[in-house]
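Response to reviewer comment R2.3. The reviewers asked that we include at least one raw input/output pair. We reproduce the pair for Small RNA 2'-O-methyltransferase here without editing.
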Amino acid sequence: MLLTLTTTHQPATDLGYLLHKHPDRTFTFELPVGQAQVFYPEVSQERCTVAVLVEVDPVLISRGRQGAGSLPLEPYVNDRPYAASSFLSGALRAAFGTAMAGRSKERPDLAQAALPFHVQLPAVPSRGGPDLAGRLFGPLGYRVTARPHPLDPAFPEWGDSPYLDLTLDAEIRLKDLLAHLSVLILVLDDAKHYYVDESEVDKLLRLGEGWLEDHPERDLITRRALKHQRSLQRAVQAQFADDGEEAVPSPEPRLNDQRLDAVTAALLASGAKSVLDLGCGEGKLLARLLPERQFERLTGMDVSLRELARARGRLRLDELPETYRQRLTLLQGSLTYRDARLSGYDAAALVEVIEHLDPQRLWTLERVVFGQARPGTVIVTTPNEEYNATWATLPAGSARHTDHRFEWTRAQFQAWAGGVAADYGYGVIFKEIGPQDAALGSPTQMAVFSQGAGQ
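Raw output as returned:
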């Protein structure tokens, strides 16, 4: 399977800097089912083309299939070596991961600029009709040309095959182009060669950031990208709802932004100079806190090394000025184990964290944060379970995310927070975040714990 990507931006050889692949070299890397090559068939100052060639071994594919419900020869004789598929999407992420993050050490401004690109996929499945490519790429600003391949040119009466010769033209940032290709190639094919679990939700949301939530074919994209697993689809829809896009069709900021803004404001109001972001994820709160000069020391901690790597990329930690880097630290660790590194901070934030723990394990978090680390201010946010009834995307009784171990009503959250405050010598006040419902409250509830404050 083959993909070529051409730019006429001048000097066109800048494409090598953006892709982190020198035009004078051929790059070969192994895949679980074969190998891929990246090379430049055309290089000049006026026009530069990079090609990604994926060579798939059907025998290797068959070893993972075990003939599950297929015809005897199907695992060995199929279109996988020839037609663009999730193998190609995976190869793009492996070959151009830094470019997909929007980073270029030599051409940082160019990495954020819209450039002219021409993409050609000589053979891509379109399982949904020849117009599907236009429905997927057209709303993103591409000029789409899709020519169906005939089943057999010698027998035109047989009609067209489900495969397209697809070309795409747009002026677009390279990182956005690669994200669109990575997701939509496998959506066109409607098949994935690997097991899909909850981690695919995060991947889809990351690659779809800034375009998927408003795409007119969002439901189809989500369904196919997650291999038609309804629980994972609900997790994505709940995330969009949790960010306020579906639940609040208004010009208000997304719920996630309102939540992070509220936490930032509470931290500023506390007067804290050193802050822990516990369960920091990909660093969205830290990105808001870092420009505030009040915060002289910021530390983000998460149990997931993958999330910490994403935080490092989001914060561009390696590219920050030294004065910023000295203020920011990322740590790997668990909130259910005592950790001396957490002591000595003025404030701590746990944004949408506690609901990811089993209720019977919450006492360990309470002991670590309130009993041992003991920052002067602790801010906790969590979903308000009552508000879920306002979202049609959530079936009755469902949680907003598949990893949520519980979601509390306002009374349950206030009872828990009041007990923690009493046990560890804090006062606590409560705030609601997001659009108000007269009966059900707001989608997010926040508790601000302060040492020495009255309840």
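Confidence is low (pLDDT under 50) at residues 64-71, 243-251. Residues 255-451 form a domain with the Rossmann fold fold (CATH 3.40.50.150). Further pairs are available on request from the corresponding author.
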